[in-house]
Amino acid sequence: MDETTRQKRFPWLKVALRVSVMLNLAALGVLGGIMTRAGDQGSFLRAAISALPSEDRRAFRQETRAIWRDARMQRGGPAGSASMIAALRAETFDADAFTQNLQQSQDRLMKISSEMHERIVARISAMSLDERRAYADALQEQLNARRMRARQRSDRPE
User: Fold this and answer.
1) CA 63 from chain center: how many Å?
2) In a designed cystine with 138, which of 38, 51, 75, 130 is the match (CB 3.0 to 4.6 A)?
C-alpha cells in the first residue's frame, strides 16, 4: 500500500524526466548542428578559421586536434557510452543516469567550443593592424563564397 501511494504521489516525475531527456537531446542536436554546419552558409567559426593565414590555420588545426583528443580522454572512454546504452536497455529506465551522461556530453562539447573560440580570439588579438585588415578581407571573401555556394544550392532544381 505504501508503494502504490508513493507512485501516485509524484505522477508528474516521469513526465518531467522524459521532457528533460528530450530537451537535452535537442540541445545536443542543436550544438552538433552549430559545430558542423550552421545553416546553408556554414558556421562563422569555420569561415573564421578558413580565413586565417595558412601557417596560423595549420597551427590552429593542430591545437584543435589536441583539444578534441583531450576531450576524448576525459569522457571516460567506452564506459560513458556503455552506461547510456545500459540505461536504455534496462527493464526500468534510469532517466537520471541517462540525463547525467547526456549532460556530461553536452558539457564536453561546450568546453571544446569555448576553447576553440578562445584560441582564435587570442590568435587574432596578436595580429598587427595590417594583418587584421588582411584577415578581415579574407574573412569577407570566405563569407561571400559561402553565400554564393548556398545560393547555388538553393537554385538547383530538385
Assistant:
1) 17
2) 51
Q: How many residues are given for the chain?
A: 158
* Tens-place pLDDT, residues 62-76: 888 888 888 777 765
Domain boundaries, the chain: 2-155
C-alpha cell at 26: 535537442
Between the CA of residue 74 and those of 15, 53, 77, 87, 114, what are the distances in Å? 31, 31, 8, 21, 16
Query: Residue 117 has which C-alpha cell?
Result: 573560440
| CA dist 23 → 26, 27, 39, 151 (Å) | 5, 6, 21, 32
- The Cα–Cα gap between 26 and 99 comes to 12
As a whole-number percent, the residues of the chain with pLDDT over 90 amount to 10
Distances (CA, A) of 157 to 26, 39, 42, 146: 31, 19, 21, 19
